[in-house]
Write a structure and sequence with these properties.
This protein is α/β, with parallel strands linked by helices and 513 residues long. Helix content is 61%, strand content 8%.
């Protein structure tokens, strides 16, 4: 207890404030992009922080409404007809996730290729930078939580930037430049470690500067004043008796229909995959390299999603943008995630009027910094130095996510990643060398069916009249399919005048049918 509230509390509180400022516009933007009430995104953010944070075993990841699920949510609400029916499917999806966690399905998260995870992080960083350029220039036609290439306003990521330069706002540009200057200054040790200034994160100073500059415009340059869509927009209640109007309850009237269950399973499976991906990425960024129990995380997400559905929230997953902001801001324990949820709940209810004065261009500066930390040039260099087997899946994942969306891009990256895993596995498990017309086929460690196709291809290239040695003394396991390929090669070698010698490998004398 002393360690938690004495040693780590100051780091977790500072981090939670930064995560709150990052999460606030994204919660609202994702809700709007999903075709749901704005409050549903904020509810999901609160649930992701407090409920999921309480049950999660992760020290650094932060959960909230998922940008990767916006298309799924939008289509689900449209096909079901009402938001209330969608909430009911979310409750069931949470129970399905809970079941997956209890069945230890989270172990699947350990099999994602590292190059794909690295590519996902870098792509999200680039998307953050590209998507925030319009907001930084004061062109706020697209929602802040939209991460897809093809946008709801019929533009795409790059055409939106073009229009932003054409229809820019000088007031927004000045605010984002000041905010960026403050954030960069607070990355320097002399301010970051200062006893007074360092006690408050640079993100808060940046937000305060944005509010003050925008207010001063009214007195000095009224034409530059930002209002309406250029500011955060939180639903405001005048007293606690109106809180009930912010909550929407689920409708289970269609629970016996097939579409209901199809959507519930889709939400559970897609949400679980996105969570496991983000969890793996967050663990890799954790300075202390702590490993999160993935099945326990599915249990936590399941509880969070069912609770979110019961009170009108969006689906919740672990979110890499919030998690990155949390880690880079110095979070030590999961209390930071919980504190950010508490801040969302308390400040939304107590000072919505002040929060609604925050310019989106100011928040864009914070997201610029998060994006840069995910997609620094040094990351590309380090992956390049690891070789083509890492670089190609990495780049494919980056560009696939940039030009589609998170889930489609991950799927494409996984396909390329799997190909290179198989290729690398073959190179490590089977080695064929040639010297003066003699061939040595070495089977090393475990040789699985994944090596079948490349092994057949390599054996077919061995010319007639050669001597071949098949050495399997180092192989601990040889798959049945591999044994059949070797048997067939040995049996047909007499016809090709190939002399075969085996070491540590038994073969059949008759050809199998």
């Amino acid at each position: 207890m002393e360690s938690l509230f004495g040693k780590n509390i100051k780091y977790d509180l500072k981090s939670s404030l930064v995560v709150f400022l990052v999460a606030l516009p994204l919660c609202l933007g994702i809700a709007i992009a999903s075709g749901a009430p704005p409050m549903s995104g904020l509810i999901a953010g609160i649930i992701g922080g407090i409920v999921v944070g309480a049950f999660s075993g992760s020290h650094v990841s932060v959960s909230g409404p998922a940008a990767g699920l916006t298309v799924v949510v939008l289509d689900s609400i449209s096909s079901l007809g009402t938001f209330q029916l969608f909430l009911a499917t979310l409750v069931i999806a949470g129970l399905i996730q809970l079941g997956l966690g209890l069945l230890k399905a989270g172990v699947l998260g350990y099999y994602f290729p590292h190059s794909v995870i690295k590519g996902m992080l870098t792509a999200i960083g680039l998307i953050l930078i590209l998507k925030q350029i319009p907001h930084a220039l004061g062109y706020d036609k697209d929602t802040m939580g939209d991460e897809t290439f093809l946008q709801s306003d019929d533009h795409n990521t790059f055409s939106e930037i073009w229009y932003a330069f054409e229809f820019n706002s000088p007031g927004a540009i000045l605010i984002v430049l000041v905010a960026l200057g403050i954030l960069i200054a607070f990355e320097q040790p002399f301010l970051k470690n200062h006893k007074i200034f360092g006690a408050v994160p640079g993100a808060l100073w940046a937000v305060l500067s944005g509010i003050l500059i925008n207010v001063s415009y009214k007195f000095w340059i009224p034409a530059w004043t930002l209002d309406g869509e250029h500011l955060v927009t939180i639903p405001v209640v005048s007293d606690f008796s109106e809180l009930g109007s912010l909550i929407t309850f689920p409708d289970f009237s269609q629970i016996a229909t097939a579409p209901f269950w199809i959507i519930a399973f889709t939400l559970a499976v897609v949400g679980s995959i996105e969570t496991l991906l983000c969890l793996d990425a967050a663990d890799k960024m954790d300075p202390q390299k702590r490993i999160t129990p993935s099945s326990r995380e599915l249990v936590a997400q399941g509880i969070g999603n069912s609770f979110s559905g019961l009170i009108g929230g969006l689906p919740v997953t672990a979110v890499i943008v919030r998690s990155t902001a949390n880690i880079t801001s110095g979070a030590k324990t999961k209390m930071s995630a919980i504190f950010h949820g508490v801040l969302l709940m308390v400040l939304i209810l107590s000072i919505p009027g002040i929060l609604n004065k925050i310019p989106l261009s100011c928040l864009a500066a914070i997201l610029f910094m998060v994006g840069y930390k995910l997609a620094k040039p040094s990351i590309f260099i380090s992956v390049y130095e690891k070789g083509w087997d890492q670089l190609i899946p990495f780049l494919v994942t980056v560009f696939a996510i940039l030009f589609t969306d998170l889930l489609v891009g991950i799927g494409i990256g996984m396909a390329f990643g799997l190909f290179f895993v198989i290729k690398t596995n073959f190179q490590k498990s089977i080695r064929i060398t040639e010297l003066n017309g003699n061939y040595l086929v070495q089977l090393q460690k475990d040789v699985s069916f994944l090596n079948k196709a490349p092994l057949m291809k390599e054996l077919s290239r061995i010319p007639s009249g050669c001597q071949v040695v098949i050495n399997a003394e180092k192989a601990r396991f040889i798959d049945h399919d591999i044994q059949e390929v070797l048997n067939d090669f040995i049996l047909t070698s007499f016809d090709k005048n190939i002399e075969v010698t085996t070491e540590g490998f038994r073969y059949k004398l008759e050809k199998t049918i």
